[in-house]
Amino acid sequence: MDFEIARRTPQEALARLDSRSSGLSAAEVVARRARFGPNRIEAAEREPLWWRLGREFVHFFALILWFAAGLAFVAELHDPGQGMRELGVAIVGVIVVNGLFSFWQEYRAEQALAALRSLLPPQVDVLRDGHLERLAAEALVPGDVIRLGAGDRVPADCRLLEAHGVRVDTATISGESVPMARSAAPCASIHPLEASNLLLAGTLLVSGEASALVFATGMHTEFGRIARLTQGAAETVSPLQREIARISRLVVALACGLGVLFFAIGELLGLPFLANLMFAVGIIVANVPEGLLPTVTLALALATQRMARRQALVRHLPAVEALGSTTVICSDKTGTLTQNRMRVARVVSADGTDAPGHVPAMLACIARHCHTLRCSAGTVSGDPMELALYAWAGAGASAECLDELAFDTERKRMSVVVKLDGRRLLLCKGAPETVLPLCRTVADGDQPRTFDEPARAALLAQQAACAASGLRVLALAWRELPEQAPACEDDLVCAGLLALEDPPRPQVREAVGRCREAGIRVVMVTGDHPQTALAIARQIGLVRGAQPLLLRGEDLQRMTPAQRQQVLAAPELICARVSAEQKLLVVEALQARGEVVAVTGDGVNDAPALKRADVGIAMGLSGTDVAKEAADIVLLDDHFATLVDAIEEGRAVYANIRKFLTYILSSNVPEIVPYLAFVLAGIPLPLTVIQILAVDLGTDMLPALALGAEPPHPGLMREPPRARRERLLNAPLLLRAYGWLGVMQTLVSLGVFLWLLNAGGWQYGDALGARSPLYLQATSACLVSIVVCQMANLFVCRHPREAVWHGGHNRLLLPALAFELLVILAIVYTSPGQQLFGTAALSVAVWGWAALGALLLLCCEELRKACMRARDRARHG
C-alpha cells in the first residue's frame, strides 16, 4: 500500500493516482477493475466441504471402529442371531455421530471471513465523470473519489481531499477507544494509523463530512492485510484434542495388538475359526472405549452451559479444557479491565485547587456546549469523552451554535462559537499544553485576573499529578466575542481543568489476584498510551513492583524471535501501542516458550491473535463480529473477572475428564479378562460382545457424564497450571483404573459368574450351549456384577484422594444411578432386552453377591485414599 500519499497535498495525491476531483471516467474504471479486481475480501482457497466431511470418518480412531464393525457384520453372515449385527450397527452409529460433530465444529470456525466481509459497506456515493452515483462498494477502484458523512463506514483505504469536522472511530483496526480527528492537510507521518489525512477501510465516521480519494481496495487495504493474517493464522490444536488423539492411538494399538495376539493363541489351541474371530472382535471392542468421544463431547457441552450461566459463551468445545490449562493471559485494557465508560474524576478550578464540592459555572458551560455530539430523538451519541463531559455538566441553558473550529492533531483542541444569554462566546477545550499558552487571564469570581506564572505552575502541577494517575486531562477556556468578530483562539480566559478516567471494572483486582494465586501470568497488551496502561495496571494490582517492563509495539517488532521469547518472560509486563502483527508476535513468542496462551480482544485487528492463540476470547458487548467469529469463547459482559471464572471451569473440566476416564477404563478390565479366561482357562465365555457394548454405550454413559459435571474443587484455583506436556492419561490414572479398581471389579464379576454356574450344576469341562438357560443366567450375572460395581465406582471416582462424603453437590449423580439401574433391569428382565443382549432373569441372591462385592470395592478404595491423605500430611508436616 502506498502510504506516501499522506505527505502529498490533495492535488498531488490526485495526480499521483492519475485521477481528478470530478472522478474517473467509465473507461478508466473498467481498466483499473481489470487490474486491481473487485473491492472485497477474498476467501482463501479451502478444501471442498464434501472432502472435509468425508475426512472425519477415515481418521485413525474411526478406521479401527470401521474394522471392528466390519468384523461384526462378517460374523453375523456366518452365524446369524448372535447379536453381531446389532454390535456393528452400534459401532457405525458412534462413528457417524462423532464425525458429524467434528465437521460441524470446523465449519463454524470458518465464519470469521464472512464477518470480515460484513464490515465493508454495501453501497457508497462515488463521483464518476463529474456525476455523483450510488454504487456497490465492490465497484470501487483506486483513483475513485467518494463522498462520506457521519455514520458512514469507510469502504476502502482513502486519502482525504476535503474534510469538515471529520472524526473517525478506528477501533476495529487499531483498538483505540477514542475517535480521532482527520483533516485534508498533508501529514508528515505515513503510518496508516497515525496519518491524520487517511481513512482506512472498515473504520467509521463519527462526525463530519468528507470527500476522499481511494488509493487501495480489497485485499490491498490495511483491512485486507488483517484479513489475510486471519486466514493465514494456523488453527491451534488444543491440549485436550492432542491428548484425546494420543489416548485413541494408544488404546487402539493396544486393542488391535491384543486382538491379533489372542486370535493367534486361539488358532494354536484349535478353536473354530468363527468362534476365534468373535473372540478377536470381543477383545478389540472391549478395549476400544467407544463411549469416550461422546462422553468427552457431552461433558464439554455441560461445561459450556455452566460457563454460559457465568456470562462466558463457548463457541469451540475443546477451548473449555484449553482455558483450564492456560499459563498466560494476554488481556487488552479498554472494556475488559476497565469499564469503557469515561467519567470526570477530578475538577481543578482556575486557581489550581480541587473543586470537589461544586461545579464551576463556566467549566460546566464549556463541557455542555463544546462538543460534536449528535442528538436524535432524545438520545445523545458520539465521542465517549464528550459524552462523559456532557453528562457531568448536567442540564443548563440552551445555546445556539454559530461556528466550529474542529479538533485536529496539530492544534489538539477544538472550539465552538455559541450564542448564550445574549452573549457571543467562544468555548474551547483541548490538551493543556496547547490551551493554557493561549490564556491571558483566569476566572476569579466575577473579576478575571492575570494568568501569571504561579497560577500557570499550579495548573501544570495538577495536570502532571492527574496524568501520573492515569487520568486524561483537558484544559477548558473561553472568551467573549464582539458581534461579527471572527472566531479567534487567543486572549482566552482559563476556566480550569477536567480529568477523566475509564475506571477499572469491579472485581478486576480480585480476579487478577486469583490469577496470581493460580500461577497464571497476566500481560496487558493494548493499543493505548504506555503511561495510561501502567497507571491502570497499578490500580488493579497487575503491577506491584517499582520497575515493571514496559514495552512498545515497535520495540517488539525490532527484536529477534529469541529476544522476544526472553523479554516476554518478565513477571510484570505491559505491551502498549501494539498493532495487529505485533500482538500476533507476542502470542507466538509466548507459545514458543511453551506457554498455553489465552488472548482477549474486540476489534478486527485482534482477529489474527485470537485465532492463533490457544484460546481466543472476544468481548460480547463491545466486540466486532470479526473478533467473535475468530474467537473460541465470547465474554457476554466483557468482564475480566468472568474470564477467571471460566478458567476455573476449564480446570474443573480437565479434572472431570480424568475422573470419568478412570470410571470408563475401570470397566475395561472385567470386560477383557473374561475373554482371556475363555481361551486360556477353557471356561464358557462369561460376557458377550453385545453385553460389553451394553456397558460401554449404555449403563456407563450417564454416570460418566455425571462425573463430567462435578463442581470445581475448592482448592482448584490455588494450584499451579499443569505443565503443557502433562498427559491426561498418566501412569497413576492407569494404575488406579486397570491395576486396582478394574481388578477388584473382575474378581467380583468372575466370582459371581462361576458361583452361579457351580450352583446350576456345571462342572469344569462341560459344554454349554449359547442359548442354554444356565449360560444365559451366568452371563447375565457377570454383566450385572460389573454394572453394580460401576455404581460404587461412580462415587469413589469423584476424587482421587478425598473421601466420598467430602464431595460437593452434584445434581446429576442420583439421576445417573437411577438411569444405570433402570437400564440393567430392562436388559435382564424385559423380553426385548433378553433377546437383544442374550440375558435371562436373575434371583435376588445374585444381586446380593454383586452388591457385597461393590461394597468391598468401595471400602478398599476409601482405605487407599485414607492412606494417601495420611502420607501427604506426614510429608508436609
Automatic annotation (TrEMBL):
Gene Ontology molecular functions: ATP binding; ATP hydrolysis activity; P-type ion transporter activity
Record localization: Cell membrane
An example Gene Ontology CC term for this record: plasma membrane
Membrane-crossing segments per the record: 57-75, 87-104, 250-271, 277-303, 733-755, 775-796, 812-830, 836-859
Limits of the Cation-transporting P-type ATPase N-terminal domain: 4-77
Main location: membrane
InterPro entries given in the database record: ATPase_P-typ_cation-transptr_C (IPR006068), ATPase_P-typ_cation-transptr_N (IPR004014), ATPase_P-typ_cyto_dom_N (IPR023299), ATPase_P-typ_P_site (IPR018303), ATPase_P-typ_TM_dom_sf (IPR023298), ATPase_P-typ_transduc_dom_A_sf (IPR008250), ATPase_P-type_domA (IPR059000), Cation_transp_ATPase_P-type (IPR050510)
Membrane topology: Multi-pass membrane protein
Top-level taxon in the UniProt lineage: Bacteria
Transmembrane as UniProt keyword: yes
One Pfam family it belongs to: Cation_ATPase_C
Keyword field: ATP-binding, Cell membrane, Membrane, Nucleotide-binding, Translocase, Transmembrane, Transmembrane helix
Family to which this protein belongs: Belongs to the cation transport ATPase (P-type) (TC 3.A.3) family. Type IIA subfamily.
Protein name (database record): Sodium/potassium-transporting ATPase subunit alpha
Annotated source species: Plasticicumulans acidivorans
